[in-house]
Structures are given as structure tokens and as C-alpha cells.
């Protein structure tokens, strides 16, 4: 068990998400930064889809009740294991009874605590991802102080580390593909791509709200339709909302674009008050960028097993 002693963050068990059920009204959920979760699993020699603990904007103290090798990925933590510093992107062996203290995040929004073999929690509809709306997966709710997260005892792996997937900057470029209603929203000057947005603190796992000059366009009549992680809706106030991991499955607002899969994690790591600029790309570029990440993850997994 990983016993959560104290918790000053929003935390939940997540994997790469629940797919195939949007038509039934059951959302994808999963990690906000699935690539960083997969990087942690690769570093530990795990299957890429194994569940980890997602920690958002905060820290914790937790006791390992069984030996295991673990790592932290995603956001950069200021942390120690029994007083010895731990660095994001490196794997460490934790002995039974040792205490991990994550004091705070110095960069990024979502960090992942991965253990060898993953957390042994409920899988429902093919995923262990926590859906707090339906109480599916994980613990069926957010993690709280006092919870014990089960995992199987692991072995000591040699020391190894990898670089973070992203740079954490005050201004982050996010690549998007134009969506079906783009031409109805943008009929002259493209004020969506020409301006710099600020991430609103009124954002969460359902959607990232963007503060900036409102987009002005004529009324667009639309029936409710299917939506997914990464789609960018423009409500009547003209301020875009990027749908995130816990997004609803249907919506009626017009869509101006969609964040490419390779940049969903980069967007998820933007902090409240930091700035975002959207850059258009085509489908070929989107696929190439994702292929590059997958090749990197495969390389890390291969090296991790070699230095077991």
C-alpha cells in the first residue's frame, strides 16, 4: 500500500483513459498529461496503460508499506524520500516504511507518481481512470488523506533518469487543427490565432477557459453533438474553452479548432495565469509529432529494461 498521510492537492488515480463509451455518455477521463504518465510507466518497465497517481498543484506525504521502485513525471516537484532529494524523471527504490514528501510543484500543473507494476485498483469498462461524475475506476472519487493505494511489492532497479517531455514557459505555443465551424466563426481577420490568451483560474479537468479579446461572430445554430478532449468550443461570450480529460460527451457550442494529441499534455501543464498562443498545423504534422513522442517512449522503455 501507499498510505497517503497528508495531501494538499487534488489527486486521483488515472491511466490513459476510458475509450469506446462516448456514445453511451461515459467520458474518456484519464490523465490530463497522458504522455507524461506513459513516460513514467516506460521508465519503470511497466505497460504504458498502467494506472498512476495524478497530483494537481500541490503536494503530499505518503508511506510506502512495501518495497517498490517508483518515479515522478510531468510537473516538477520539490520532494524528498526520507530526507534524500528525489528528482522528477528519475526512478528510485523505496523500502518498506520510507516516507515520500512532495513539498510543492515548482513548475507545471499535473504530476504523476508511478510505481513498479502500477497501482492495483478497480478497472471498470476497460480503465482504472477515476470518473468522479459516475464513480467509475480507481477509488471512484478523488484521493484523500488516510487513503491506502494498493500495489504489489517490487524489486530494486538501477538508477536511471530521462529529461522532461516539455519546457515550462510563461508563453506556450499549442498546435491546433481547424475545426468544422472555423469558417463560420472566422470570416475576416483571424483574432483567434493572432492573440495571446491567458489561462483562467476558472479552469479544471473538464475545461480550460481562456481569457482574451472575445471573438465576435454571428449566431450559429447547432444541435448538440459529440465532443472530446482537445476540442476548442466558442460560447456566446466569445471566450474559447478547450475541453480537457473530464469533458462532457456532447455539446452545442461551435468549434473553432482542436488541439493535436501531441500537445494535449503540454497544454495541461500550463499554469493558471500563464499565456497560450495557438498555431495552426495540418493533419500530417499532427501525426508526425505524435509519432515522434511514441518513438521516444519506446526508446525509454527499451533502455529501462536494459538497465533493470
Q: What does it look like?
A:
With 308 residues, the protein is an alpha+beta fold. The chain is built from five helices and 18 strands. Helix 1 packs parallel to helix 5 (283-306). It comes from Moraxella lacunata.
Short structural description:
The chain has 308 residues and is of the alpha+beta class. The chain is 15% helix and 32% strand.
What's the pLDDT, averaged over the residues?
A: 94
Shape descriptor reads elongated
Oligomer: single chain
Record field, number of beta strands: 18
Count of helical regions: 5
Topology (SSEs and partners):
Layout: E1 2-7, E2 10-14, H1 34-43, E3 52-56, E4 60-64, E5 68-81, E6 84-86, E7 91-94, E8 99-115, E9 148-149, E10 171-178, H2 182-185, H3 191-194, E11 197-199, E12 207-211, E13 225-226, E14 231-233, E15 241-243, E16 250-251, E17 255-259, H4 264-268, E18 275-280, H5 283-306
Parallel strand pairs: 10-18
Antiparallel strand pairs: 1-4, 1-9, 2-3, 3-8, 4-8, 5-6, 5-7, 5-8, 10-17, 11-12, 11-18, 12-15, 13-16, 14-15, 14-17
Protein name: Carboxyltransferase domain-containing protein
Keywords: ATP-binding, Hydrolase, Nucleotide-binding
InterPro entries: CT_A_B, Cyclophilin-like_dom_sf, PxpC
What features would you highlight for this structure?
308 residues, alpha+beta, Cyclophilin, 2 domains, nine-stranded antiparallel sheet, seven-stranded mixed beta barrel, 5 helices, Cyclophilin-like_dom_sf
